[in-house]
Design a protein that fits this description.
Chain lengths: 149, 137
């Protein structure tokens, strides 16, 4: 199924994500990251943080738990979700993210390429009120069904 | 720990991080933590139907392990950018080691920056994820 190129440049509905202390802890435990700044408020404060900050890849939690509809959106766009490969993930950090933050996320389709090797880049911007806190860019590729790897 | 701009030099190594072997249970934990429930990471039969030998680690898990090396060194506050490319699949049993170095120091207006080149590879030296991070001091 070819990609529906009309999605290029389109933004999906905004979603809200509340940052929970337990999700920060859970992500770090899954990664095996025992850095106490992510677990212990006192350690975090002693090293210059307001509270236990979100780790560098916390946006993955925000993306999947905040906007699980992305899978449906991908199918609507003609992306074969069983074959897609994650090619790149890029973050720009504008402000620290802390437990209790209520963030608004908006996913947009930044670029698309159809053909034998399809490619789609999604950009998600997160803001806290009027303040932009993080930009996440995910690039996926959809390899050909035959003869690919 | 805080590093300051003057205490690092171009070519300095980021302290390397050797991880415990990836386990199947870790992939289940990571699925729950991240919300990425693609069964290719957790269900062996599904992964085999997809043509693989078994489950593969979430790319974001390996990116997270590589990030751990960076935040062990500088915390998260100085990091203004972090981006990676996924190069190869990691599997349960793989023992990954993250390495990196300072590639460039520079100032823009009054801000001081350092760029890092980072990667995480298995015991055979196969790079799974590689990328760059920018620190602002």
């Amino acid at each position: 199924m070819p990609l529906d190129m009309s999605y290029k440049g389109k933004s999906f509905d905004a979603f809200t994500f509340e940052v929970e202390r337990g999700k920060i802890r859970e992500l770090c435990l899954a990664i095996g990251d025992k850095n106490q700044i992510f677990f212990d408020r006192d350690v975090a404060r002693a090293t210059g943080y307001k509270d236990t900050p979100a780790p560098l890849t916390f946006a993955t939690v925000m993306n999947f738990w905040g906007y699980p509809e992305v899978w449906e959106r991908m199918k609507e766009m003609g992306i074969d979700v069983q074959r897609l490969l994650h090619a790149k993930e890029e973050y720009e950090y504008h402000s620290q993210i802390y437990p209790g933050d209520i963030l608004t996320g908006v996913v947009s389709v930044e670029s698309m390429r159809d053909g034998a090797m399809g490619m789609v880049a999604f950009k998600t911007t997160y803001s806290r009120g009027d303040e932009k806190v993080l930009t996440a860019k995910m690039t996926i590729i959809i390899p050909p069904r035959k003869g690919g790897n | 720990m805080f590093l300051d701009y003057d205490s690092i030099a171009e070519g300095d190594a980021v302290p390397a991080l050797k991880k415990e072997p990836i386990s199947q249970v870790q992939l289940v934990r990571y699925a729950g933590a991240s919300g990425d429930f693609n069964p290719i990471h957790t269900v062996v039969e599904y992964a085999r139907e997809a043509g693989l030998d078994g489950t593969i680690a979430h790319g974001m898990l390996t990116m997270g392990m590589l990030a751990q090396m960076i935040s062990n060194w500088v915390g998260v506050k100085p990091v203004t950018r972090y981006g990676v490319s996924f190069k190869a699949m990691a599997k349960p049993g793989d023992v990954l080691t993250a390495t990196g170095e300072v590639t460039k120091k520079y100032t823009v207006l009054n801000d001081k920056f350092a760029d890092l080149s980072v990667r995480i590879a298995d015991g055979n030296g196969e790079v799974k994820v590689e990328g760059k991070a920018t620190l602002r001091f």
